[in-house]
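Attaching the record inline, Q. Sequence:
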Amino acid sequence: MRRKIGVCTWIFGNIEPVNLADMIHEMRFDGVELYIDTDCFSPQYIKQIFADRGLEIFSITPSNVNLASSSTNSRKNAITYYKKLIDYGSELGEPIVICHEYIQSQLGAVDSGSIEVLAESCQEIALYALQGNLKLGFEPLNRYLCSFILTSTDAQYLLGLINAANMTIVLDAFHMNLEEDDPVQAIRRCGDKLSIYQIADSNRKGIGLGHTNFTSHLDALDAINYNGPLILEPAGLRQRPGSSENLNLDEIKFHLYKSRNWLLGRTQALV
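Structure, as predicted:
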């Protein structure tokens, strides 16, 4: 099955959007998972520069806000942020708006809130997104970053609490390597609720530079008839959305080219 191949834009650090779009086009990707400062660039401008280069906007990476916070103000601010991101996304087309828990600092404890509050917040933003015909995708992370949603089973439980038809699941191969007993079964378990599949090897490098068995992952995607994009997300050490720490652009490009070539080779072999 030939799937479109995209790349997360946050891994490139703080590059002007037009230069970013040029670079991704030159690397011959089909589209992007967009990370953008919505206050700095209009959605019309962003939509145009990517469309001019034949790039789709598959999904949107959020900033780090706390939907589960026990602080009423923090929670309201998080919900307001997501509603703004949903409005922005609706101007771009119909990208999946990704949600995740608050990414905690490893230097000290923060208020993680509760899973019940997380579900209430997600339900509110899911209903809001439904008005614009947008889907949300909740992404499990890992124990070093968050508290509640670490696995596909956790995500399914959360979706049951939210009970919104437009809430889906995003799986990330890097996080699955840390938390899932069996990533292949995790993919199969999500079935038609899987909307985005993100790729980085076990060490967050390109395909083949770690120990993840991506052949079995893609076989599982075939088994559930997954027709969404494959989103590449290799990253530097301690690099997070909005940060350019330890960014080596040549190294990132190497991981992307290696991964893209592997994916295309597998597709061609199947054909």
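Residues 89 and 251 are 30 Å apart (CA to CA). The longest helix spans residues 249-270.

More tomorrow.
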